Amino acid sequence: MEPLPGTFLGFEAAAHDSPAAIVGRARRERLGLAFNQSLGFVNRDLDEVIPPTWDFAFPFVGGFAVVCEGCRSRPVDDEHSEMHGGVWGYINRSGEIVVPIEYERDSLPEPPLKR
């Protein structure tokens, strides 16, 4: 099989994992998908539901995902990193911006209530 054209977020695939194993796991988990350094989201059938748009995105919680533009990864120690900089906001499961992408991460308000 050909390598997958992207990186699944939310778990680390081992070097020996086959694409079939990665796809199987992705079908069991709702994961973001990275293409050319932009992040989007796929559903359990691996259909793209939100095109790769964001520099970073956290997984959906309560129907919303925190996303950022212009943020970058910064090492915290030898094994961990964190996202810093850029502007942050929220999207819903349709990819609509529900809290404007204009906040610093530390001042990001709580997500809106699910309606």
Mean of residue pLDDT values: 75
Distance, first to last CA:
42 Å
Strand order of the largest sheet: 1-2-3-4
Helix content: under 10%
Report the structural category: mainly beta
Beta content? 35-45%
Number of helices: 1
- What's the number of extended β-strand segments? 10
What general outline do the C-alpha atoms trace?
A: globular
Question: Gyration radius, to the nearest Å?
Answer: 15 Å
The largest sheet, given as strand count, sense and whether it forms a barrel, is: 4 strands, antiparallel
Q: Segments where pLDDT lies below 50 for 5+ residues?
A: 1-15
- Helices and strands, in N-to-C order? EHEEEEEEEEE
What do you see in this structure?
This protein is mainly β and 115 residues long. Helix content is 9%, strand content 41%. The protein contains 1 helix and 10 strands; from the N terminus they run E-H-E-E-E-E-E-E-E-E-E. It has one helix spanning 19-28, and strands spanning 7-8, 32-35, 38-42, 48-54, 56-57, 64-69, 72-75, 81-84, 87-92, 97-103. A 4-stranded antiparallel beta sheet has the order 1-2-3-4, with no helix packed on it. The protein has a 4-stranded antiparallel beta sheet with strand order 5-6-9-10, with no helix packed on it. A two-stranded antiparallel ribbon has the order 7-8. Strand 5 (56-57) and strand 6 (64-69) form a beta hairpin. The longest helix is centred in the N-terminal third of the chain and has 10 residues, at 19-28. The protein is globular, with a radius of gyration of 15 Å. Mean pLDDT is 75; it is low at 1-15.
